[in-house]
Structures are given as C-alpha cells and as structure tokens.
Design a protein that fits this description.
Blueprint lengths: L1 E3 L8 H6 L1 H6 L1 E3 L1 H18 L7 E5 L6 E3 L4 E5 H6 L3 H16 L2 H10 L4 H14 L4 H5 L3 H28 L5 H10 L12 H5 L4 H13 L11 H16 L2 H6 L7 H14 L3 H14 L4 H13 L3 H14 L4 H14 L4 H15 L4 H13 L3 H14 L3 H14 L5 H21 L1
Parallel strand pairs: 3-5
Antiparallel strand pairs: 1-2, 2-3, 4-5
Helix pairs in contact: 3-5, 3-9, 3-13, 5-9, 5-10, 6-9, 7-9, 10-12, 13-15, 15-16, 16-17, 17-18, 17-19, 18-19, 19-20, 19-21, 20-21, 21-22, 22-23, 22-24, 23-24
C-alpha cells in the first residue's frame, strides 16, 4: 500500500481542476485494494449494462468524506469515506451514484453548463465549483455572485437527482437493497445546517434535499428482494481491505492494542503484521506475514505485502523472491510488477538491473499513471546509461503531478539527448506543448 501523488491522465482543464484535490492529497495505490473495489463495483456495472466497460477507481488519501468522478470513467473515493462505510452495500450505494454520473454523461453536461458563464464572476465560479467537486476550493466559490452560485448548484442538484435514480436501478438490478443508500444519507443528515467550512465535501457536492432522502426511503420500502445478494467471497475481501486501510492509515500502537476486535484469526494476523511493520518491529512483522503466507500460500497479495515489508526493512534480496512469487500468482497486476522492479533495483546484484528495467517497462505499459512506477523506471534508465529516456520519464512523472514547470525542464533535457522524431522525443514534445499552453492560459 503506497501513497503516490498523481492525476489520472492528460485531460481537459476542467477535469484537471476536478482532480486537483487528488493531486494535492495524493492517491493510495494498492493492487489488492483496487481489485477489491473493482469487485464491489462489478455487479453495479453489470446491472447498468456496462459490464465490459473499464471504470477505474482511485482512492484519495483524505480523511474527509467525499466521492466524485473526473477525467472520463474514473471514480475517486476518499479513504475517509471508505473507512466510514459499515458494509459492502453502503459502499456500493456511493459507487452506484457515481456510476450514474458516468453513464449519464454528467461530466460533459456540467462542463458545457459552466462554459456558458460569460462574466468574470461566472468564470471564477466555474473554477470554484470544479474545485468544490474535488473537495477543495470552497472559499473561491463562496465569495462569488449569489445568483450565479445558485444557478450552477441548481444544475448540479438536478444531476444528483438523476444519479440517485440511476443508482437505485443499478442496486436493485444487482440484488442490493436501496436501504444501504438511506444509511449513507443518514451519515450526512443535518450537516447542511452547518457552515460551509464545517461540512463534509460530500454534502457540498451531493446536496441532501428532503426530496432526495424521501425518494431513497421510498425505494428502500418498495424493494422486494433479499437484504443483499453478494458474490462469493466479497465480504471477505472487503474486510481485508478495511484492515489494510486501518492498518496503514491508523495509529499502529492503537491498532495493535485492539487487534482482537478485528474478527477472524487471519485478519488479526494481518493487522499485527502491518502494525509491527509501521512501529517498526521488523522481526515481529516478518513473523506475522510469514504466518499469513503459510495460511494462504497462493495468495498473490500476501506475497506482495511480504515483499513490501522485507524491502522497506532493508532486505531487498528476500523481497525480490516474495515479489517474484506475487507476480507469478497475479501476472496482470502492474503495481505488483512495479514492486518487483523496485526490489530488483534495490538488490543491485548480477542481472538485477536489466531485469528491473524490463519489469518496470511492463508495469508502466499496463499502468502509465503511477508516479512511483515512473520514478523507479527513470532510475532504471539512468543506471543503465540511458539518460534521455530517464529524462522523458521524469518529465512525464512531473506532468502527472501537474508540476509542468519541472516537467518542461526535463522534457527539454530529454529532447537534447534523444534523436529527433523518436518516440521519447515526441512524448517530450507533447509535454512541452501542454506546458506552454497552460502557461499561456495563466498569463491571460
């Protein structure tokens, strides 16, 4: 489980503004957590008729309660919101709502509506609302003309109602009771009476009108299906995910004292392994993670966690073995491959460098949006005597972090080192073009 500052992709300025909070706070990247979130979303996607469509889910490292969509089929969930949900169904209620925004094209419609603002105040409001949609920038929107603010938020409320109706359909089609949505809304009930700076971002971007709450309650009362109908194992993976979240985000000493409250013996062992690792007590952490691997020898994510614990404890050689086994068991997991690449770089013996470069290239090809992978790949290029490629990858990493000043410095360096017209040179040229465009926009 790693914290990495990134933005999903090079997209329109509006989407970049929506994702700015994710950039500032950073994203939590973890192969197991992201797989679990995909499993939770899967029945809703199938119910919505888009089971074959790729929808990426990112976890924002933020304790506040919020969720939003940005940059296409990307759902962002704050870690605080995930930890607040008391069941898989409650998390599905949030996901179903955000999925409704995606399936109904609300991002494009909202961008078009904001673009219609012709005054300077309207332009400022567009920026403020986009920031608010990402959980930040509320002060910008609050100081603008009240009439414009009401206009845009009224438009947003109509979208929220439409997303609610879609989420009810998706939940019912997936065999999930809409009562879970009522339970989510109850968490925020009463917050609209608070001042803006005391409200959770979710309330600001998902207005809790009385009609909205009544509609959800009516849907829950009319639901005739079973309380919930989940696929085999989903509650197990959900529980594991929460242990990881609480383990890596919460206080390790507190977690260790309360480990018996977690549940099963396996999950208690997982909780102890993470707590000991973070304290740090490497010998105890290794003992606990070895127990987990023995319990589930074919579990790619336990081998990956073992690799992380060993690598961060200074035992790169043993970490390589754990990451290699994890990559064999989960061959399509780019974050696992990236971990193997980092371990090989740290090991630094024999043919480790060449293998590290090859592995990191594969990880990057499958997920080019992880800045930690880009950092490791740039290091591997530099160590293998390819400074031009190292510079272009570094430029891309800074661009993903929206730091175009540094991105342009490294892109220019890459163009000076690479033959004109090659793939790397052209990628550097694209980064420079985007940086110049953004710089021109700022000057205006």
């Amino acid at each position: 489980m790693r914290l990495t500052p990134i933005i999903p992709t090079f997209v329109a300025i509006f989407a970049l503004m929506q994702a700015q909070m994710a950039t500032a706070q950073g994203l939590i990247r973890d192969a197991e957590i992201e797989r679990t979130l995909r499993l939770v979303l899967q029945p809703l996607q199938k119910s919505a008729g888009i089971g074959g469509t790729r929808v990426d889910i990112f976890v924002v490292n933020d304790r506040s309660l919020n969720a939003f969509v940005a940059g296409g089929n990307n759902i962002f969930l704050n870690s605080g919101l995930i930890r607040k949900m008391k069941s898989v169904e409650m998390l599905q209620a949030v996901m179903g709502h955000e999925l409704g925004h995606i399936t109904q094209g609300h991002q494009a419609a909202r961008a078009a509506h904001l673009a219609s603002a012709r005054t300077a105040a309207g332009i400022g409001l567009a920026i403020g609302v986009a920031a608010a949609a990402a959980g930040g920038g509320i002060g910008v929107a609050a100081g603008l003309q009240e009439s414009l603010r009401r206009s845009v938020f009224a438009f947003t409320r109509s979208q929220e109602s439409a997303a609610d109706r879609a989420s009810i359909r998706y939940m019912q089609g997936a065999g999930v009771s809409p009562q879970a949505a009522v339970e989510v809304l109850n968490i925020f009930k009463g917050q609209e009476a608070l001042t803006i700076n005391r409200q959770d971002p979710y309330v600001l971007t998902h207005p809790l009108t009385s009609d909205r709450i009544a509609r959800m309650k009516a849907a829950a009362a009319a639901y005739k299906g079973s309380p919930s109908k989940q696929s085999d194992g989903i509650n197990y993976w959900y529980a594991r995910m929460l242990v990881k979240f609480n383990g890596f985000i919460g206080n390790p000493s507190y977690n260790l004292r309360h480990v018996k409250d977690i549940g099963s013996a396996e999950l208690q062992t997982l909780g102890r392994a993470i707590a000991y690792h973070r304290i740090p007590k490497p010998k105890q952490a290794r003992k606990e993670i070895d127990k987990l691997v023995k319990m589930r020898p074919n579990d790619a994510y336990y081998h990956e966690l073992r690799g992380q614990i060993l690598l961060e404890s200074g035992d790169a050689r043993s970490a390589v073995g754990s990451y290699r086994r994890a990559a064999q068991l989960g061959p399509k997991e780019p974050l696992v491959l990236a971990g193997l690449g980092r371990a090989l770089l740290a090991n630094g013996s024999g043919g480790s460098l060449n293998e590290a470069l090859d592995v990191l290239k594969k990880a990057y090809a499958r997920d080019p949006r992880d800045s930690s992978t880009l950092h490791s790949l740039a290091l591997a290029y530099a160590k293998s005597g390819q400074p031009g490629q190292a510079s272009v990858v570094t430029a891309e990493r800074y661009a993903l972090q929206s730091n175009f000043r540094q991105a342009m410095i490294h892109a220019k360096r890459a163009q000076g080192l690479l033959p004109q017209g090659t793939t790397g040179w052209l990628k550097a040229d694209d980064i420079l073009a985007i940086g110049r465009k953004l710089d021109t926009g700022k000057k205006k």
